[in-house]
């Protein structure tokens, strides 16, 4: 980016240009598509088109989203992915009609996510992937209508239970985060050993079929243990003659 508040060759969006970018979706909604237009600052003129249902400002160079975005009260779909945004305005919580919010591939930090996000009671999909989040605000757990949550490619070390236990959650993408490594296999093996010595009932209290099942399971476990600890056997090659026997028999012919 060049020095100063504006980026290189930032395109100025006029009201006329914006109106020409309104499209009708397959379900009859109005979408204002200003993606991939080299925009560096949020075009204030589009506030006069606040009756649109969907707004796409993705793949630009926008650094800041103003509080005035809350004027889009009918907005159900907001796509801001692939910009330079490091903070969302608190007023976003007033956009209660939102069903879809995509702010992936920006510069968002955890402090840049306002608490007011928990007011988006109708939202179903949020994507915070490819940012700089080191923790997830537990307030997102208040969004009971969430179906999909994207948290991939961040700096997260844990996911709050309030997120993973959302009642309608169908997809939670947390790939490529620096989560702690899972415990070593030895821990699991050790737990099996300890369970092997845990007796819940005595043999005399078991019915015949149950006792036989337990004995069979115990025999299998002992067999596995013996196989694991047994020394490797030497390979037996019964079909081969003793070393050099054929050579000895043919020595005279070679001489």
UniProtKB/TrEMBL annotation:
It comes from the Eukaryota. Gene3D superfamilies: Ribonuclease Inhibitor. The keyword Nucleotide-binding does not apply. PROSITE patterns: LRR. It is found in: Cytoplasm. One of its GO terms (cellular component) is cytoplasm. Its main location: cytoplasm. Residues 32-128 form the Disease resistance R13L4/SHOC-2-like LRR domain. Keywords: Cytoplasm, Leucine-rich repeat, Repeat. May be involved in the regulation of spermatogenesis and sperm maturation. This is Leucine-rich repeat-containing protein 18. It comes from Balaenoptera physalus (Fin whale).
């Amino acid at each position: 980016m060049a020095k100063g508040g504006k980026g290189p060759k930032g395109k100025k969006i006029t009201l006329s240009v914006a109106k020409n970018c309104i499209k009708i979706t397959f379900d009859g909604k109005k979408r204002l598509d200003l993606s991939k237009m080299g925009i560096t600052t949020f075009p204030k003129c589009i506030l006069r088109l606040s009756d649109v249902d969907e707004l796409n400002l993705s793949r630009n160079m926008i650094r800041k989203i103003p509080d005035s975005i809350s004027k889009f009260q009918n907005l159900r779909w907001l796509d801001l992915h692939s910009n330079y945004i490091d903070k969302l305005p608190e007023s976003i919580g007033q956009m209660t009609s939102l069903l879809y919010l995509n702010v992936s591939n920006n510069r968002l930090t955890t402090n840049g996510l306002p608490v007011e996000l928990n007011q988006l009671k109708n939202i179903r999909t949020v994507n915070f992937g490819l940012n700089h989040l080191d923790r997830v605000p537990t307030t997102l757990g208040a969004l009971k209508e969430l179906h999909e949550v994207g948290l991939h490619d961040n700096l997260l070390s844990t996911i709050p239970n309030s997120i993973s236990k959302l009642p309608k959650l169908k997809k939670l993408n947390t790939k490529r985060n620096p989560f702690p490594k899972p415990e070593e296999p030895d821990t699991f093996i050790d737990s099996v050993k300890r369970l092997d010595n845990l007796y819940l009932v005595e043999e005399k209290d078991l019915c015949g079929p149950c006792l036989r099942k337990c004995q069979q399971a115990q025999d299998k476990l002992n067999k596995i243990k013996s196989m694991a600890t047994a020394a490797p056997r030497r390979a037996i090659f019964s079909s081969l003659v003793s070393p050099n026997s054929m050579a000895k028999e043919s020595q005279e012919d070679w001489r």
